[in-house]
Amino acid sequence: MNDTQQEPWLIRRDLDFLNHGSFGATPRCVIENQRHWQNQLEEDPIEFLAPERSLLPKLDFVRQTVAQELNASPRDIAFVRNATEGVNAVVRSLPLRAGDEVLVTNHGYNACINAVAQAANSAGATVVTANIPFPIQSPDEIVRAIEHSISPKTTWMLIDHVTSPTGIVLPVAELIELAHSNNIRVMVDGAHAPGMLPLNLNELNPDYYTANHHKWWCGPKVSGFLYVDEKSQGEVLPSIISHGANTEGYGPSKFQCQFNWPGTFDPSPLLALPTAIDFLASLYPTDDPNRLAGLMRHNHDLAVAGRRVILDKLKLPEPVPESMLGSLATIPIPAWTNHTSAQIQALRTALRTEHRFELPVFRLDAANVCLRISAQTYNSLDQYERLADAVTKLS
Ligand SMILES: Cc1ncc(COP(=O)(O)O)c(C=O)c1O
């Protein structure tokens, strides 16, 4: 075995990969575990895949693992392919009526907002966008922006736990309380949260929460979960209607029965998730009941330190307080503000081909062209130092 084969991560070494946030990255041992499941499946496909034979107990084992990490009941958790599917399942099941308002934010994820817009349009409801400022100084600005956008017609809202373009950790506990005190049901798009932030869904008490396993839990692509509070489970249907709609025995409740079988599928990404979480937990052992607390702290500290290196080198103020970040950070680069799309594309190409970086560079709004850094355990501070030098050259 050469050196590369012993590396725990498969990320290529000739690249500074600072974009864990987009699709995650999966450790070697997890991919091996996924292949093990795929081999078992192919050795005896019917025995392995038929829900009434050996699949359901395997899914339930993963569900237990997920529930434990989320501090939630396994009863309230279904599996989906990804957060986009989780949001789709909920919004397409909502009993929206003409005249209702549904609330999203300007830092929301485009695919999910599209799903909300589609559901609202077909019901004759309106999508209202709350404007979260950027740069930002405190979580209160977020609460105020959302409060300001609530009206007596608001029935439902979608908020992100960690915003994709800006890496801001929203004050979800406060926002859920605010929604509930206004009789609004709230869905949290937590795509980035598991593995980045401690989660306690029992305490948070959202109506719906969805997230990816393949981002910061580093599971294989593609898998995620959808949590639905017990009182709403009766009305949430999966995006794919399959046998569970009229077949018993695919799960202990109608909710899980419907989600457990989306038609023939490859369950290996799901089944390899416990190995991914065990691997991450083994990197930074801790006495904390949250076994990923050490990893989360490490990644947060690295993101903050990496951002600091770039801000100092470019003499920029911090756009978001450190306390509002997880392990993603977005930095607006003033020298790029007036760049055209072609110039922004040229920056991406130069960063990738000349400087060997992988990270998003994008226009956030009229005032901000930004880059977004991620910090995962395979990253190191010298990568952000090199990035600061490259950005200086490109500014
Ligand atoms: C906040 C947020 N929601 C949803 C998604 C969609 O994830 P997926 O494409 O895996 O469904 C992303 C992806 O980056 C995201 O950042």
Automatic annotation (TrEMBL):
Coiled coil, from the record: none
Keyword ATP-binding: no
A Pfam family it matches: Aminotran_5
Keywords of the record: Pyridoxal phosphate
Domain Aminotransferase class V: 59-386
Lineage: superkingdom: Bacteria
Protein name in UniProt: Isopenicillin N-epimerase
Organism annotation: Rhodopirellula europaea SH398
Record lineage: Bacteria, Pseudomonadati, Planctomycetota, Planctomycetia, Pirellulales
